[in-house]
Design goal:
about 700 residues, alpha+beta, eight-stranded antiparallel β-sheet, seven-stranded mixed β-sheet, binds guanosine-5'-diphosphate
Length: about 700
C-alpha cells in the first residue's frame, strides 16, 4: 500500500450493541471495497475480523480488530470493537485510535443499550459519529421506527441521509436524500432512478431538513441559504461534513450487511462525509503538543493495543498522530525513556498482514518484535518529551482468587499472567499479603474466564478461580493484664520463661508497639527481644478468627527466669502465649475493609442503586450531576462488593459504571463477626 496524505485517510471505529451486526457490517464494507474476495460470516467462522479461536467459540468479538483498505482513492482504517461490557477496554482503545465512530443500530430492535453507551461515550470524547441502521432485511425490520428511536435517544441532530424503500424481505433500495434519487439494489450494485411518487413528499421534506442542518454548520452557508433559499450540491456536502466534524450532526444510513444492500452508500458516506485526521484538532498530552496530523511534523505515535499471536509473538497496534517513521527506523519510547527499533510495519486486514514501507501521520499500522512498548506508550524521536494523552482504560472492577490446579506450576501461572496483564490494561494481578492469595482482577466474570482460557492455551497452565477471602483484621477494644508461664521439664535441660504482659488499644493505623517496662533485671535484657518476637510472630494469626491483629500495644512489665532452663526460645513461646491470652481478654473484635465507591448512572436508576447501596451496608457520602448522569459517592464494605460489577450491570441494564478504591477499616457488625468466627473455626477443624 502506498502512503496516504492525512486528508485521504478515514479512521473509523464500529461500535454498538453486541449482535447489532458490527462485524458483519465490517466484512461487507471490506467485500464491497474489494479488499476481500469473498464475504466473511460470523456464523460459519469465515469472518476475517473475528478470527481468534476465542471469538469462534463465543460467536462474539472479544478484541478490537483492524481492517485497512482503499476505497475511491482514500484509505479506510476500520476498527471493529466488541459490544460486551467485559471487553470495554478494547472498545475504548478502538474509539481512541479512531477519528470518528460508526454507531451500528439494529433495524429490528432500535437503539440498544450498547449503542446508547457508545453514543454517550462518543459525546463525552467529542468524537464525530455516523449511525448505520443495519439488518434492514430482517423479518421484523422497521427502518423508520429505528430512525425514530435514534432521534428520541440521540436527539434531532441525527439526520437521515436516506429513506429506506421497503422493510424486511422487501427492502429493495433507498432514496438518496442528498442527491434526490432512488437507488434500487440489483445484484449487489444499485440502479439509479427518480424518486418514486410514494416517497416524493417525505423525500422533499427530508431534503429540506438536510439542507437546513448543513447550512447551520457555518455562518457563510447559513447566509447563503437565507439569501438564496438553497445550497449547491458541493456546499451541501461541505456543510454536512463540517457539521459532522463539529459533532452537531449525525448522518443516518440504512443497510443490510448480510445481503450487501446499501453497503456502497455507507462507504461513500465514510469517504465523503466523515472527517479525516487532517480535520481533527491536534493531539494533546503531556510535555508538548498539541500536534496536528502532519507527516513532516515531530513524531508522535501511540501504542493502542498489544495482542499475542502464536508463532509471531506480540503484535503492536500503532496510531501515528504526527510525523513519519520508516520500517527499520529508530524511534524513542518517551514513556520508557528508551530507544526502540521499529522493524517491519504492516497494514492489516484481520490477521492477514501486508508489509508497508512507512507509517505516516494520521495512519494506523501494526508492528512486531518491539522491545519495550506497553499499551499507551508514546514513540517520538530522541529528546522528545511529548507523551500523548493516555487512553482512559476502565480499571478492574472484580477480584478473584486464582490458583493452579497442579502444585508446582505457580511460576508458570505468574509468567503467563504477567504477560496477559502487559497486553490488557484492564486486567491486573497481585499477591495479597494479608490473605496469602493470588488475586486476578478484571472487568467481569467473562473477562477473567477468557484469561483462564488463554493461560491454558498459550501458557499451558490450568488455573481455577474462586471467591477471594476478605482481608478482615482483628483489634482490641479493652485492656488486659495477664501472666503466662512456659515451663517444660523433659529429660535433660528444661525450658522456663515467665512473663507479665499488659495489652491495650492504640489509635487506628498505629499498628503495633512493644514497651519494655522491666525493672531490676527480673527478666535479663537478652530475653526481652525474644518476647517481642513471639508476639510479632503470633500477630498475623489474630486472636479470635485468624486475621491479622492491628493497633495495639503490649507492655512487658514483670516476669521471672531460671538461670539454667531459661532461653530465648522459651521467652518467645511465653511472649506469644501471653499475647494470645491477653488479646482474648481485651475485648477483641473484627474489622472489615471499606471501599470508596463512585457509581455513575442515568437518573432513572437512582432509586434502585441507592437502595442497593444501603442493602450492602453502605453509606452514601454525596451525590452530584455530571453530563446528564448521576454520580453517587459511597462507602461500602468490601465484603459486599464482590459481585457488584455484575449486579450493577443487571440493575441498570449495563448503563451504570463504577470505580472503587480502598478506604478504611471499620468494625464488623456483631452478628457477622459470629459468622466469621464460626467459619474460621470450621476451617481450622478441616486443617486438623
Ligand atoms: P456484532 O456483535 O455487532 O459484531 O454482530 P455480528 O456481526 O456478529 O452479527 C450478529 C448476528 O447478526 C450474526 O448472526 C449475523 O449473521 C447477523 N447479522 C448481521 N448483520 C445482519 C444483517 O444485515 N441481516 C441479517 N439478517 N442478519 C445480520
Amino acid at each position: 500500500m502506498k502512503t496516504y496524505a492525512p486528508s485521504d485517510i478515514r479512521n473509523v471505529a464500529l461500535v454498538g450493541h453486541g449482535g447489532a451486526g458490527k462485524t458483519t457490517l465490517a466484512e461487507s464494507l471490506l467485500f464491497r471495497a474489494k479488499a476481500t474476495s469473498r464475504m466473511g460470516h460470523v456464523s460459519d467462522q469465515s469472518s476475517v475480523l473475528d478470527y481468534l479461536p476465542e471469538e469462534h467459540k463465543r460467536g462474539a468479538t472479544v478484541g478490537l480488530s483492524l481492517a485497512q483498505f482503499e476505497y475511491r482513492g482514500k484509505k479506510v482504517n476500520l476498527i471493529d470493537t466488541p459490544g460486551f461490557a467485559d471487553f470495554e477496554g478494547e472498545k475504548v482503545a478502538g474509539m481512541y485510535a479512531a477519528d470518528c465512530l460508526l454507531v451500528v443500530v439494529s433495524a429490528d430492535s432500535g437503539v440498544g443499550v450498547g449503542a446508547e453507551l457508545a453514543w454517550r461515550r462518543a459525546r463525552a470524547m467529542k468524537r464525530p459519529a455516523a449511525i448505520v441502521v443495519n439488518g434492514m432485511d430482517k423479518e421484523h425490520a422497521d427502518g423508520m421506527a429505528a430512525l425514530k428511536s435514534i432521534r428520541e435517544k440521540f436527539g434531532k441532530k441525527a439526520t437521515a441521509m436516506q429513506i429506506p424503500m421497503g422493510n424486511g424481505p422487501s427492502f429493495k433500495g433507498v432514496v438518496d436524500i442528498l442527491r434526490d434519487q432512488a437507488l434500487t439494489f440489483k445484484d449487489g450494485e444499485s440502479d439509479k432512478g427518480p424518486v418514486p411518487p410514494e416517497h416524493a413528499e417525505a423525500e422533499a421534506e427530508a431534503h429540506a431538513a438536510l439542507m437546513e442542518n448543513a447550512a447551520e454548520s457555518s455562518e457563510e452557508l447559513l447566509n447563503k441559504f437565507f439569501e438564496e433559499g438553497e445550497l449547491s450540491q458541493e456546499e451541501l456536502i461541505r456543510g454536512l461534513h463540517d457539521g459532522i466534524l463539529q459533532g452537531d450532526l449525525f448522518p443516518v444510513f440504512f443497510c443490510s450487511a448480510l445481503e450487501l444492500h446499501g453497503i456502497s452508500q455507507v462507504l461513500d458516506g465514510i469517504v465523503d462525509l466523515l472527517p479525516s485526521p487532517a480535520d481533527r484538532p491536534g493531539i494533546t498530552g503531556e510535555g508538548g503538543g498539541p500536534l496536528k496530523a502532519d507527516p513532516n511534523g515531530p513524531l508522535a505515535i501511540q501504542v493502542f493495543k498489544i495482542a499475542a499471536e502464536t508463532h509471531v509473538g506480540d503484535i503492536f497496534y500503532l496510531r501515528n498522530f504526527s510525523g513519519t517513521v520508516k520500517a527499520g527506523g529508530e524511534v524513542y519510547n518517551v514513556h520508557r525513556d528508551e530507544p526502540e527499533k521499529v522493524g517491519q510495519l504492516f497494514s492489516a486486514i484481520g490477521k492477514a498482514r501486508t508489509e508497508v514501507p512507512e507509517l505516516s501521520a494520521g495512519d494506523l499500522a501494526v508492528a512486531v518484535k518491539l522491545r519495550s512498548a506497553h499499551t499507551n506508550d508514546t514513540f517520538g524521536t530522541k529528546g522528545s518529551t511529548f507523551k500523548i494523552r493516555p487512553i482512559p482504560f476502565p480499571s478492574p472492577a472484580i477480584d478473584f482468587m486464582v490458583h493452579t490446579k497442579k502444585q508446582g506450576e505457580e511460576d508458570k501461572m505468574g509468567t503467563g499472567l504477567a504477560r496477559l496483564v502487559a497486553e490488557d490494561p484492564t486486567l491486573s494481578f497481585h499477591y495479597e499479603e494479608e490473605t496469602h492469595e493470588s488475586i486476578l482482577s478484571g472487568l467481569g466474570e467473562t473477562h477473567l474466564e477468557l484469561a483462564v482460557q488463554r493461560l491454558h492455551e498459550r501458557f499451558h497452565v490450568d488455573v481455577e478461580l474462586a471467591s477471594p477471602r476478605i482481608a478482615f483484621r482483628e483489634t482490641i477494644r479493652g485492656k488486659a493484664e495477664v501472666h503466662a508461664r512456659h515451663k517444660k521439664q523433659t529429660g535433660g535441660r528444661g525450658q522456663f520463661a515467665d512473663v507479665h504482659l499488659r495489652i491495650e488499644p492504640l489509635p487506628e493505623g498505629q499498628g503495633f508497639e512493644f514497651v519494655d517496662a522491666i525493672v531490676g533485671g527480673v527478666i535479663p535484657g537478652r530475653f526481652i527481644p525474644a518476647v517481642e518476637k513471639g508476639i510479632r510472630e503470633a500477630m498475623p494469626r489474630g486472636a479470635i478468627a485468624g486475621y491479622s491483629m492491628v493497633d495495639f500495644k503490649c507492655t512487658l512489665f514483670d516476669g521471672s527466669f531460671h538461670a539454667v532452663d531459661s532461653s530465648e526460645a522459651a521467652f518467645k513461646i511465653a511472649g506469644s502465649m501471653a499475647y494470645r491470652q491477653a488479646a482474648r481478654e481485651a475485648k477483641p473484635t473484627i474489622l472489615e475493609p471499606y471501599l470508596d465507591v463512585t457509581v455513575v448512572i442515568p437518573q432513572d436508576y437512582m432509586g434502585d442503586v441507592m437502595g442497593d447501596v444501603s442493602q450492602r451496608r453502605g453509606r452514601v457520602q454525596g451525590m452530584e450531576a455530571d453530563a446528564g448522569d448521576q454520580v453517587i459517592h459511597a462507602q461500602i464494605p468490601a465484603a459486599e462488593m464482590q459481585r457488584y460489577a455484575m449486579d450493577l450491570r443487571s440493575m441498570t441494564q449495563g448503563r451504570g459504571r463504577f470505580e472503587r478504591k480502598f478506604s478504611h477499616y471499620e468494625e464488623l457488625p456483631r452478628e457477622l463477626q459470629e459468622k466469621v468466627i464460626a467459619e474460621a473455626k470450621a476451617e481450622e477443624e478441616v486443617a486438623k
